[in-house]
Amino acid sequence: MEQRLKVGISGLGLIGSSILKGLAKNSCYELYCHSISSAKKALEYTKNASSDIKILKDCDIVFVCCELLKTVDVLDELNIFLNKKTIVADVSSVKSILLNKKYNFDFILSHPMAGSEKQGFDAGDEDLFIGAKWLVQKKNNILEKIIKDLGAISFEIDMNKHDFMCAQISHLPTILSFLLFDSALDDSKLIASSGFRDSTRLAMTNASLAYGMLKNNEENIIKAFDILLDKFDSLKNISDNEKIKLFEEISKKRMKMYNKDGKNVFKI
User: Fold this and answer.
1) Using one digit for the tens of pLDDT, what is the confidence trace for 191-214?
2) What CATH architecture applies to the domain 160-237?
3) Rounded to whole angstroms, how far apart are CA atoms 258 and 174?
4) How far are the Cα atoms of 79, 183, 222, 249 from residue 229, in angstroms, in the given order?
């Protein structure tokens, strides 16, 4: 019988618990979980769960899924005892603080482009990654297999470009969602319907996560916001017919970007 791959997960919030739940029924994997707050809940999916991070010491691969602001500390702690052959992949949405880090283990920057405004272990969904792109710094057979088994699509990118890309399509929309909700008068909120609901969904994002985005990627978020402001200012200089034509073109592109299941099928 082929030996099962030992997969470790540190942090069991939305992403970590979704990895756990997505792999739990797959006989190829032996799962090990580290969490201060949710180790007991993880026992429903694996017998190997603890608040002690050293439970991960014999894993073949470890996913670091804690809050962004705690990621470096967890990586430093893992560096003390993990085997140099162990693969470690983070899932952080900001990479600038990790790009030049050197560890004894095989560290791979990664970022699953899937999520929700929901948070915590109970929000974890075994189907969260199905059809989603999973950004990776480099190819690795073990990581590729896990990504595929979770239903995601491995997508190799230059991680030096990662933070600006995510500022445009994730971090800026999140911050704007918070501010859009906050800027609307209470009288206006009384009559708000689906447009305001959908535009401010991200304002329910974990506050620490939103703060981590702003703290660690502020320069790129501002750059992305400046581009948005330039787009807005350009409307002043075109005719009404040109405005309508522009909105029609944008609308057509947006309608083609996602399939009926809500998955990104955009093509350049």
Assistant:
1) 999 999 999 999 998 898 899 899
2) Orthogonal Bundle (1.10)
3) 19
4) 43, 17, 10, 19
Residue 2: pLDDT band (50, 70, 90) is low
Higher-confidence position of 114 and 105 = 105
Other CB atoms within 10 Å distance of the CB of residue 132: 19
Q: Are 42 and 12 in contact (CB under 8 A)?
A: yes
CATH of domain 5-157: 3.40.50.720
The structure's pTM equals: 0.88
CA distances from 164 to 7, 16, 90, 96, 103 (A): 30, 24, 18, 10, 25
Instruction: Break the chain into its structural domains and give their ranges.
Output: 5-157, 160-237
CA–centroid distance for 74 within its chain? 17
As given in the structure block, the two tokens for residue 58 are 């014999």
- φ/ψ region of 11 (left if φ > 0, alpha if ψ in -120 to 50, else beta) reads left
Helix spans in the chain (H): 14-23, 39-42, 68-81, 141-149, 159-166, 172-183, 186-190, 194-199, 207-234, 240-257
